[in-house]
Automatic annotation (TrEMBL):
Keywords: Ligase. GO terms for molecular function: ligase activity. This is AMP-fatty acid ligase. Pfam families: AMP-binding. InterPro entries: AMP-bd_C_sf (IPR045851), AMP-dep_synth/lig_dom (IPR000873), ANL_N_sf (IPR042099). It comes from the Bacteria. Residues 26-295 form the AMP-dependent synthetase/ligase domain.
Length: 458
């Protein structure tokens, strides 16, 4: 099944017969490289240390992806429960403190008062004779967090078995295409997409990866090379407007949210590479993928999935990526097509009731972006007094900016509402608007619900 002779399943990764000098990770700033020998020694030292610790649940928070990889493998080989908070912010970590017993982190991440913490690299770490054995993956628990629709972190329980199954399929589908390329990323390893694509897949397949995120569009352009694969998100790819590059990437992956078709074409023009979008969730892992030649390009199911639709036309999925559930019910409304393809139609959980009428927030956003004045739109329900209304956060096109300058906000909002009446019932037309330069997104390309709400509280 695996396309590369250097690929080793996650269960047996630490027993890989890999050359000691093989490069695992590179610090792009200093060009210092970490070898396979150093990696195995670091994992062994930390495993020996953790096996002596009584704490069972360890939160893993690192800015450095190499240290994160060492911590993850050592925790798995120490029979510990791996907890992956969504970010490193002190208040966010403190809010989750009841979910873990201790914190593994690096110097970039602050400890939490009252909780045991261990900083990597270990001071006075002993070289040890730890013998690695095959991991019982289904007995290696991992907890990830997703923001959900409310913005409150929601714990998603998985095991390394489901994660390992997905790694095998990633190598099956794309391994030959990105053979021997170096991996750079704009997304965090703390989330499922980054964990898989920027960290564990390179580790298992013998590809080197960069230790730190690329944050700015200029950094992405500077790293373009035929020997480099970029792991990114719509949040970053949309910011490449006006950039110039004489180099191409080997491949570009995008996930975390919908990639606008103009951004896909922009990446193709800039890097001679049309991004591969991956659709899925923390709960399901990857479901499908596509390269967006047209906005209507359908999605292709991963080869191991079985799918069907429920009465509401929402996707049900049977997948080895999902632990212990025969069929998983999503809220993604789809049309199933021949050749194991599908079209996404929106989410059923983005339907709200206003004055007893069901309103699709996805449809309202679609109608807004069909107007010549609006580039992107995020629509959300707002409590106003004792009634529910819709608010719209929008980014304007050049025509919209000109209209705003000429007429002012009040007249532009009125013109938008008048245009929407062609398609939407009055209760489904947003009553309040906020024009912004960019829709608030996190590093994974997900909309920040609370940030959207806060725009209307001002």
């Amino acid at each position: 099944m695996n396309s590369s002779s250097t690929y080793h399943p996650l269960a047996d990764l630490m027993m890989s017969p890999r050359a000691n000098s093989a490069i695992v990770a590179i610090d792009d700033a200093s060009q210092d490289a970490v070898t396979w020998l150093q990696f195995t020694q670091d994992v062994a030292s930390l495993t020996a240390f953790l096996q002596q610790r009584p704490e069972a649940r360890w939160a893993v928070c690192f800015a450095d992806s190499y240290h994160f990889a060492v911590a993850l493998m050592a925790l798995a080989h120490s029979n510990k429960h791996i907890i992956l908070p969504g970010n490193h912010q002190p208040a966010a970590l403190a809010a989750l403190a009841d979910k873990f017993d201790a914190l593994l982190h690096d110097a970039e991440v602050d400890a939490i008062a009252g909780l045991p913490s261990v900083t990597l690299p270990l001071a006075n770490a002993d070289a040890t004779d730890i013998t690695f054995r095959s991991l019982p993956l289904s007995q290696c628990p991992v907890t990830l967090f997703t923001s959900g629709s409310s913005g409150t972190p929601k714990a998603i329980e998985k095991t390394l078995a489901g994660i390992a199954a997905e790694l095998d399929v990633l190598e099956q589908v794309w391994g030959e295409k990105i053979t021997d390329s170096h991996i750079v990323s704009t997304v965090s390893h703390q989330h499922i997409y980054g964990l898989l694509f920027r960290l564990l897949w390179p580790l298992c397949s013998g590809r080197s990866f960069s230790r730190f995120d690329l944050i700015y569009p200029e950094q992405v352009v500077a790293h373009a090379s035929a020997n480099i694969t970029l792991i990114s998100s719509p949040a970053l790819l949309k910011r490449l407007t006006g950039m110039v590059s004489e180099q191409s990437f080997r491949h570009i992956f995008s996930s975390g949210g919908p990639l606008p078709h103009p951004a896909a074409l922009q990446s193709q023009a800039l890097f001679s590479c049309l991004p591969t979008e991956v659709f899925g969730s923390t709960e399901t892992g990857g479901i499908g993928y596509r390269q967006q030649q047209q906005p209507t390009t359908p999605w292709q199911l991963f080869p191991c999935h079985q799918v069907e639709l429920n009465a509401e036309q929402c996707l049900r999925i049977q997948s080895p990526f999902i632990d212990g559930i025969d069929w998983y019910q999503t809220s993604d409304q789809c049309d199933l097509l021949p050749e194991r393809q599908f079209m996404l139609k929106g989410r059923a959980d983005r339907v709200v009731k206003i004055e007893e009428k069901r309103i699709s927030l996805v449809e309202v956003e679609q109608r807004l972006t069909e107007l010549e004045w609006i580039d992107e739109a995020a629509v959300l329900p707002l409590d106003e007094g004792h009634r529910l209304i819709l608010g719209a956060v929008i980014t304007l096109t050049a025509a919209g900016e000109a209209q705003l300058t000429a007429q002012g906000k009040g007249k532009l909002w009125l013109a938008i509402r008048q245009q929407l009446r062609q398609w939407l019932e009055p209760v489904g037309i947003p009553r309040r608007y906020r024009a912004v330069d960019e829709i608030p997104l996190n590093s994974q390309g997900k909309r920040q619900f609370q940030a959207l709400v806060d725009l209307f509280a001002e």
